[in-house]
Every structure is written in structure tokens, then in C-alpha cells.
């Protein structure tokens, strides 16, 4: 398996800063924002985006990040039944607010579909937006990210490996050639 680094730590920081600015611009400020990361790495990315928004708009209402577990809403539980549910922690009511879902890699769209189902059980947001550090294409559902750190076209035999300081001890995104698997992350 060969790996090629496509984003280093500085690249990831720049991408998340740009995403934070784009979120603020599209929402016309930080008011009524709720940022929810999809475990595992989406939670760390959501926290970084919320902190960046706080630095950009230091005198505004604080934006808090939370997490949204989608384990029990996935459509592949029969194929992969051994999954440990993560914690859902919503920092504020979502009714009437703009919710930004954050994930590390947008691939088939199935995780985001599960997130939308989970979100509808919590409340009724005014709008739902999607931020992804990497969009690799290969959509199976009509889902598109509103905010993307890097578009990274890839083949189905490749894997996108996101590593973050909070979960893995370092920041990088690598694309790995993996000819043994037809469908990867």
C-alpha cells in the first residue's frame, strides 16, 4: 500500500479557516449557528471550526460545537453489525437554527443521510448545511457539501486517510492506494 500526503497540518488549518469564513458569510454572522461533528474525526473538526469562528468574531455570541452519533441510523448495520455507538452532545436547541454538520470525508453520502435522520429526531432546524474536510466524490445519494476543504477525486480502490492531532497525534490527509478493496472510505 502506497500513501501520498495531500494535506499537511498547515493545509488543514487553512482549509478549516476558509470553511469558518464561508460559514459566517453564508449565515451572515455566527448567530443561530449550531455546529455538529459526526464521530470520530468530524467532532474534532467541528470544534476547530467553532473555535476559529470565535476568533474571527470575538464579540459575537459564542458558537459551540457538539457531536451527532449516526450509528443506529446507518443503512449498513446488517453488513457491519459490530459498531459502538458514540455520544450525541448537542450544545443548544436546534429548532429554528442553522445546523452545520461536519465530517472528515464525504464519499457516498450515506453517512450524511443517516445524520439527517438522526437530526430530525432531535428537532427541526431552520437549515442544515454540510462541511467536509475532503470531498472525494463517488456519491450514491444526491448529497452535496456546502463547504469543502479540498476536493480530492479518487478511485474506489483508493482510501482517504484523515489523521488529526486530537485522535491520531498528527494532522494530515493522505491518499492510499489499496488494490485489495473495491469499496473503501
UniProtKB/TrEMBL annotation:
Any one Gene Ontology molecular-function term assigned to this protein's record: uracil phosphoribosyltransferase activity
Record's keyword annotation contains Disulfide bond: no
Top-level taxon: Bacteria
Listed EC numbers: 2.4.2.9
Motif PRPP-binding in this chain: 99-111
GO biological process: regulation of DNA-templated transcription
Transmembrane segment boundaries: none
Gene3D superfamilies registered for this protein in UniProt: 3.40.50.2020
Family stated for the protein in its record: Belongs to the purine/pyrimidine phosphoribosyltransferase family. PyrR subfamily.
Primary role: Regulates the transcription of the pyrimidine nucleotide (pyr) operon in response to exogenous pyrimidines.
Protein name: Bifunctional protein PyrR
Native source organism of the sequence: Rathayibacter tritici
Highest classification ranks of the organism: Bacteria, Bacillati, Actinomycetota, Actinomycetes, Micrococcales
Amino acid at each position: 500500500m502506497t500513501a501520498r500526503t495531500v494535506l499537511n497540518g498547515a493545509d488543514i488549518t487553512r482549509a478549516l479557516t476558509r470553511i469558518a469564513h464561508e460559514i459566517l458569510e453564508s449565515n451572515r454572522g455566527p448567530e443561530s449557528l449550531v455546529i455538529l461533528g459526526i464521530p470520530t474525526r468530524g467532532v474534532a473538526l467541528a470544534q476547530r471550526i467553532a473555535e476559529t469562528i470565535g476568533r474571527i468574531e470575538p464579540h459575537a455570541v459564542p458558537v459551540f460545537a457538539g457531536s451527532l452519533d449516526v450509528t443506529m441510523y446507518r443503512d449498513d448495520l446488517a453488513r457491519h453489525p459490530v459498531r459502538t455507538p458514540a455520544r450525541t452532545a448537542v450544545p443548544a436547541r436546534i429548532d429554528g437554527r442553522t445546523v452545520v454538520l461536519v465530517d472528515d470525508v464525504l464519499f457516498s453520502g450515506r453517512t450524511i443521510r443517516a445524520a439527517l435522520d438522526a437530526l430530525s429526531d432531535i428537532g427541526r432546524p431552520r437549515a442544515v448545511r454540510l462541511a467536509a474536510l475532503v470531498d472525494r466524490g463517488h456519491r450514491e445519494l444526491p448529497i452535496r457539501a456546502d463547504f469543502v476543504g479540498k476536493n480530492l477525486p479518487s478511485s474506489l480502490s483508493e482510501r482517504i486517510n484523515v489523521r488529526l492531532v486530537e485522535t491520531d497525534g498528527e494532522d494530515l490527509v493522505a491518499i492510499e492506494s489499496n488494490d485489495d478493496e473495491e469499496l473503501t472510505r
